[in-house]
Task: structure prediction
Amino acid sequence: MPSKSILITGCSSGIGYDAAHGLKNRGWRVFATCHQEKDCERLRAEGLESFPLDYADEANIEAALAECLSRTGGTLDALYNNGAFAVPGAVEDLPRAALREIFEVNLFGYHDLTCQVIKIMRAQGHGRIVNCSSILGFAPMRWRGAYNATKHAMEGLTDTLRLEMRSTPIKIILIEPGPITSKIRQNSIAHFERHIDIENSPRKAQYAQLTKRLYADKKPDTFELPASAVTKKLIHALESPRPKPRYYVTTPTYVMGLLKRVTSTRMLDKVLAKF
Result:
């Protein structure tokens, strides 16, 4: 039997990197894509099939999917939308350009690739599409407004798509990790420096804590888990005959999911304001 195939985005490090190796070790044929060619070269040296996929570039998304399909003979069993980035900063300090940039990648790119893959899966009569969201997809936190917004929007789009695809053999699934060991904080620094004008912000004094966290704090977050914890849930989402619509990962995600159901908005705000 030929191996099942999966296209994964954002594989240069963290969640995508672990998922690519973990699924390859289970016998999947993995197409591990990255934003930059230099990262693809490194993954190819590690034995993975890898080529660039840039969510912000429509032509590149189409070309990357075409490359994948050329290698499989036109089929694809699964898609794992994982690549994303953050722009730290207070909402009132986020310029329009920052939101436009992050939505292009974290939402519009997911949507574009997903819609193209659905056509393939409809034709072959099966498939699974897994979107990597976050605890921030349903519970906001301060200083993360841009990322919160993209994940909230992506969850709404994914939930709607799941409802619309109920009559098809295509499964639509969300994974919602809490704190996971990755480079997302480190990778967000360039976006923060480009878009946030601290010197002219009314919150200049408050940014001291945020910049300390961005530049100096190397300690793991409370309840942080390795990326393999996400891969474990991804494997169930891909291989279970009856996958769940959504998978929580890490204790904070379970706790916040419960609080969302049983507390008022005011009470939840008091909890979230502590972070």
